[in-house]
Amino acid sequence: MASRAREIDWLAAMGLAPDEVPAIAVLEGSWWRRERTAQRLAALEGPRELSFPDLHLGRRPADGLAVLYGCVYGASRAVEPVHACGELGTPVVVQIGSCGGLQPEVRTGDIVLPELVTIGEGASQYYGGVGASAATTELVDGAEEAFCRRGFRVHRGSHVTTSALFAQPPEQVRAWHDAGHLGVDMETSAVFSAAAHFGMAAVSLLYAWDELLAGRNFLHALSPEERLAQARANDALMEVALELVPAP
Hints:
Elements: H1 2-14, E1 24-29, H2 33-41, E2 45-49, E3 55-59, E4 66-71, H3 75-88, E5 92-101, E6 111-120, E7 132-134, H4 137-149, E8 154-162, H5 170-178, E9 183-185, H6 188-197, E10 201-211, H7 224-243
Parallel strand pairs: 1-4, 1-5, 5-10, 6-8, 8-9
Antiparallel strand pairs: 2-3, 3-4, 5-9, 6-7, 6-10
Helix pairs in contact: 3-6
């Protein structure tokens, strides 16, 4: 009874009806909140903003599956919708966005699918995350197949999440590389930790924005070909995220 009462409280707080519990939560870490939100909501039917700012509910066009989307930058912000959806019983959370490449084979526009993620942020500890957090293997498998089918170069494996975008000196980048990490972002480990706390399946779909090992970061100019590769990968993220949950 207490659990049901708590669920009702969360539904009311978020402005959701009982039949609108999201079947999938898609979260995106990005500076460009306005642009990304408009782009992702265009893939959903009837989207609307909820009582929680920057969180939106829409329906998957193919079958009306309820989808929550939020552009939430950084670990501390990213765990909030995971927590809310976890309280409601949402079964799947998908993190999307970009990352810095840490291995020479990870090129701008490639897809990175983190499997085991070193926790370098401060939110995971509050959800029992210690050392590293992990993706759901079946979702990683499905994502790899979906991106490969679209012709992307896909890398899956070790990853790291940090809380300080600008604090990535060469010695830190080298240490991450030597540890075998494919990339670095600012949300994934926290999303995985919070998802595990609530028993949710989780996956992260990232594309490589820059190549940190080569000394290239977001301040460096990209070639037209690299920008095109980034745009193509970015366009595919929401599409693949919506494919990962089967029709009810």
